[in-house]
Amino acid sequence: DVKVTQSSRYLVKRTGEKVFLECVQDMDHENMFWYRQDPGLGLRLIYFSYDVKMKEKGDIPEGYSVSREKKERFSLILESASTNQTSMYLCASSSQLAGGRNEQFFGPGTRLTVL
Amino acid sequence: KNQVEQSPQSLIILEGKNCTLQCNYTVSPFSNLRWYKQDTGRGPVSLTIMTFSENTKSNGRYTATLDADTKQSSLHITASQLSDSASYICVVSLTSGTYKYIFGTGTRLKVLA
Question: In the prediction, which pLDDT does B56 show?
Answer without folding.
Answer: 95
